Amino acid sequence: MSKRIKLIQVIGTAETMVTSLNVLQQQDPYSLLFQFHIHFHHLLTDLWMSHLFA
After folding, report:
1. Where are the domains of the chain?
2. Above 70 in pLDDT, residue 30?
3. CA dist 30 → 11, 14, 20, 35, 36 (Å)
């Protein structure tokens, strides 16, 4: 998979998560923010690894 396609997918996923976070924030902001942080960290790690080894 090309870096460009991977980057577009990662950005799309991040945007989706931000949208979900905004929608659901009223319910349980702290646990949701924690989940979002973990997911975002994994996304950045995946992006970095794909950049290093592509």
Report:
1. 3-53
2. no
3. 23, 18, 14, 9, 10
